[in-house]
Amino acid sequence: MTDLAPALRPLEWVGMQGIDLSLLLEEPGYRREVHARADVQVDLPAPHIKGIHMSRLYRLLDTLSDGVALSPVLLQPLLQEMIDSHHDCSSQNARLRLQMDLLTRRPALITEGLSGWKAYPVTLDASLVGGTFELRLTVGVGYSSTCPCSAALARQIVEQGFLHAFPSDQAIQPATVAAWLRQNATLATPHSQRSEATVEVDVPSDAPTLGLFALIDQVEQTLGTPVQTAVKRADEQAFAALNGQNLMFVEDASRRILGALSGEYRNPQVHVRHLESLHPHDASAWARSTTDQVLHER
User: Which residues carry the site feature described as May be catalytically important (predicted)?
Assistant: First the structure.
């Protein structure tokens, strides 16, 4: 007869997932309440214990909604309280994941006074394991990418069309060339696509804020073609010019971002994804720093 009794053994993590929570995010020039979802767990090293005190974890987690801005210095003592609340379970470690959207207004490229809302997905992974506190920040940044190979092929078609239209060495008036370009410069256009960069960095335990905007701004400035919100014709034209002057493969994007973050942040890791308009699949690249050197901690 099969023994249906569960084996008694330690468990790595026990807790809850998907808890709705209201959090206050505060950065320089920014203060807003956001909706977050939280996962919270403690370890269970005692092999015979079951039925942890989930209500205690919930109540402790709810203190993050007390109107105090979320910060690294707020999370470490919270995790310690969670461990202490489970001393009768012999718990020694705790972890917390917070997922939310950083909602902010972004200005148009050209038109003064024009802006629109843009959301950046943010994940915070905090842990207190063996007495060591770690905080990992992950942000998602949308951008546009134009394929260098496609751009070269498009230019070749335009070149061939021009040579076909003007086969001889006869002098050509600039106005004639301009008229031909207005009509035919789009004989072929390079394909571009909405793209995604997911960036992870460690946050120092004593940092006064999470440094969300500093990280996002650096990624967007490095890539040069962040997706836009509200636009008029001048903004769309400026965006087209940026894309035409800023061709990139996934290899280019991932290397640019990692190069910009290395030396500024600890343990940066990058994943870029170009949602191809040519193919039914995506192009992706991953990169991570090979050094822990930090020149400036934010």
Answer: 147
